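Design job #97: recover the sequence.
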């Protein structure tokens, strides 16, 4: 028996998210479904994968990590080559290696980094339509960076979670937030030990509202202290990427 680690990149535009849907939505195409179908074609048996994190519909990945167990003597490089030949062109295996049998792509993860891309071009372009959130108005990156410092550390992030009441515990640790502008693009990286559902996109939307002064800094601090009412809204899915998963 071998436990095989795969690093995967994909464009999420044409998929209903990463995770296989429930029985009522079995016809919806997912990333997990496409990968497991490729595994079936290769090994001629059903193989269930585990994964580092679930991405929603329209979200992309540069470094999603999955693992699966299989009894096979096929060389790793041949497994990678075969899977890439079976997968659609918007999903690709980047790296493959053998890992210990008790390795689990989600439970062994030390942290995950999500990257969000904002296009600041004066006019939108169709080439970035599915890969960024187009905002033509200037953003105050200084104000965004100031409020982002208040998000660093282990905190209760139920304010930024979808259906927070479904979680037993909404405390997560954000290790770092980086906000940088390169040319006409703004890149926001969020590294945390775990993410609640929609947490990354809700934080991005909040930062953008601060950046365009729809939420002044003084009010933003009060929002984080739960002293004023704030209604969550996620940033567009197309700008979000599961960028990297870090392991010990």
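Job complete. Output follows.
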């Amino acid at each position: 028996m071998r436990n095989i680690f795969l690093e995967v990149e994909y464009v999420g535009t044409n998929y209903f998210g990463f995770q296989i849907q429930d029985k009522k939505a079995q016809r919806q195409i997912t990333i997990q479904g496409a990968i497991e179908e490729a595994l079936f074609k290769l090994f001629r048996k059903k193989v269930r994968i585990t994964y580092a994190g679930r991405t929603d519909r329209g979200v992309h990945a540069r470094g999603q990590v999955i693992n699966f167990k299989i009894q096979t003597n096929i060389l790793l490089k041949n497994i990678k080559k075969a899977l890439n030949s079976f997968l659609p062109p918007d999903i690709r295996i980047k790296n493959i290696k053998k890992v210990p049998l008790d390795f689990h792509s989600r439970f062994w993860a030390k942290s995950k980094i999500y990257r969000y891309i904002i296009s600041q071009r004066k006019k939108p372009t169709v080439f970035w339509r599915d890969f960024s959130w187009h905002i033509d108005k200037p953003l105050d990156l200084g104000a965004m960076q100031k409020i982002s410092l208040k998000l660093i550390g282990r905190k209760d992030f139920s304010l930024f979670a979808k259906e927070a009441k479904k979680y037993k515990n909404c405390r997560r640790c954000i290790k770092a937030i980086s906000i940088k502008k390169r040319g006409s693009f703004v890149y926001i990286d969020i590294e945390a030990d775990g993410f609640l559902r929609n947490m990354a996109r809700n934080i991005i939307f909040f930062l953008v509202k601060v950046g365009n002064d729809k939420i002044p800094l003084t009010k933003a601090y009060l929002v984080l202290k739960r002293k004023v009412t704030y209604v969550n809204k996620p940033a567009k899915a197309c700008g979000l990427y599961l960028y990297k998963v870090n392991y010990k």
